[in-house]
Amino acid sequence: xxxxxxxxxxxxxxxxxxxPMGEHEAYISLDSGEIYWKSDLSDVDELPxxxxxxxxxxxxxxxxxxxxxxxxxxxxxxLKLPDSGDDVRRIxxxxxxxxxxxxxxxxxxxxxxxxxxxNEQVSRTLREWCAENGxxxxxxxxxxxxxxxxxTEEVVIHxxxxxxxxxxxxxxxxxxxxxxxxxxxxxxxIEAGQIVPRHRHPDANEVMYVLEGELEMNGTTYGPGTCYYxxxxxxxxxxxxxxxxxxxxxxxxxxxxDA
Length: 259
Description:
By secondary structure, this protein is of the alpha+beta class. About 25% of the residues lie in helices and about 25% in strands.
């Protein structure tokens, strides 16, 4: 199985998706993992000499092939703008729709939420596509990604091999397990002075385990070893800490949250 850098795949995907389908193309060599680009609008044409005679090149998909275009907008609208569905449909019946859609989101204070949602969905979908096509991924730290994108095989991973990222709330996060529609395991870091507002997870039961530090929640302080279960839809918070805290979270479904 070949392995490619996730950032290279993401760049190729953005290039292919920058115009209508077929205007820009990118292909992955199934032998070397190298990515070749081609565009009808410029002199970019990196296709190798054996491209027309070999079956060892896999086309990088366009966003519409992965339902990451208008359908992604529809899913976000249903989640965050359920009362604005007609407005969004009118916007997308004309040219320049994405620009006007972003203007609508900015007026609603949801632009950052849209970017976070879009990035998460693109990342998840590209990983699923790689798993389906037998392509390994190498993350920024140079280590091959060990997380499969489906629940059809066992997962063994060490937390030290997973980089810290910034979650939707600005908290540090390690996504240990991230299966679509299935269990998700996170390590979340709350720094001293940070506050997580009251919220709920409408689509998943949640188990919280304090790894290190002290977590303050609902007027009570919880130390290392504390395990806390919250049923689906349970509203809790705010969460805070005086010294910083690392918490292990387990969700049995989608971990999206709302106030």
